[in-house]
Amino acid sequence: MSEIVNIFSQNLWLFVFVTFIFAATVGSFLNVVIHRFPVMLKREWQQECNQYLNEYHTELLTKLGKTALEKPIDPYPAKYNLVVPTSACPKCSAKIKPWHNLPILGWVMLKGKCAECSNAISARYPIIELATGLLVSVLAWKLGPTSQFLLAAIFTFALIALTGIDLDEMLLPDQLTLPLLWIGLAVNYFGAFTTLQDAVIGAMAGYLSLWSVFWLFKIATGKEGMGYGDFKLLAVIGAWLGWQMLPLVIILSSLVGAVVGITLIAFKKLNQGNPIPFGPYLAAAGWIALVWGDTIVNSYLATL
User: Fold this and answer.
1) Could you give the CA distance from residue 185 to residue 188 in angstroms, rounded to a whole number?
2) How far apart are CA 50 and CA 133, in angstroms?
3) Domain locations in the chain?
4) Mind telling me which residue stretches traverse the membrane in this protein (predicted)?
5) Confidence band (pLDDT; 50, 70, 90) for 61?
């Protein structure tokens, strides 16, 4: 392992290239996570609701002296997770061949269409694969073959998955944000990105800052301005990067969110008052703070 690290340390461009290939492959898996994880959650919620209703129905039938069903009906009998079933065309159900699953190249080879029925395949898949490869390549160039790079790459993968899910579902699942929060605190126990004290304060300040804005807005307008998942995502960023980066993250995400929102309204792509997910802007600002946060903050302080 040390020999490989030495080779990559001496040939940084080789490390960046290998990293891009690996990260783009992970990006292909992130596409699966973005699509399937919300479906898995919905199925789990539905099964829990059906289980409760079945128990209530059984209890009611027993009180009435009637025979309950021996086995409740499962609304989702087929196994469904991040691995099963294998990828297939949603229109014709044709299985996706392994070489068509190659990151970026597979979509290009298929010309953006199913090989069997010519149904269009969203360009989002190669875009996420390319974006994942490029973002992690930037980390490779900046950090080199270090443990900090590995941790930063994991953080980047998680931010990409959360961004895609929030764009699709307006949802930042606790099943992803909460473990990511604890991982951030754990890695900073060893001082990976900041001190443990700054990480703990960052997690608390990240959550409470948006929580306070949420309640002030709700008291003033009677409406909910953002979801609880946004509080948790900012807490995650604080846990990973420390409280010092939170002002930068909040300013960047708010500016980008405002610009995007106004642009969509101006081009009539969004009706005024309709909600837009804030998670992607927090994630983008968090990644910028991860890579260039110290430079941006120090440059600003130098002008004071």
Assistant:
1) 5
2) 41
3) 2-109, 146-298
4) 12-34, 149-167, 176-193, 199-221, 233-266, 278-301
5) low
